Write the structure tokens for this entry.
Amino acid sequence: MLFGKEHVERYQETDGEVGHDWQGTVTLLLTTTGRRTGKEYTTPLIYQPEGDAYLVVASKGGADDHPLWYANLQANPEVKVQVKGDKFAARARTATPDEKPALWRKMTAVWPAYDEYQEKTTRDIPVVVLERA
């Protein structure tokens, strides 16, 4: 997470006026349903548009395990997304091996540290495609 709970709250309160632009890039809010708890969890993530969809990266800073939000969307791909004031239901999917190289380059162009994160782990860091439901 970027700023954690405070980032989410300010983003929601201001329709992204505070929190969308972050450290030279842009963030959206992704809400997943906990695979064990059934509760909703909202995470700010760096994104890029891809046609009508949005891309995010399940990097967790290069940790050896996936972020919890990724495990949640694998169990239930129906998610909620907020990009500035635009709030919508979406379906999340992991980019295919054929899609991933081009999508990875698009994401590292706005956050080059993703390449460093991938070097830190043997885990294949997924690119996630969020498609409007």
About this structure: The chain has a mean pLDDT of 96. The first helix runs from residue 5 to 13. Residues 5-132 form a domain with the Pnp Oxidase; Chain A fold (CATH 2.30.110.10).
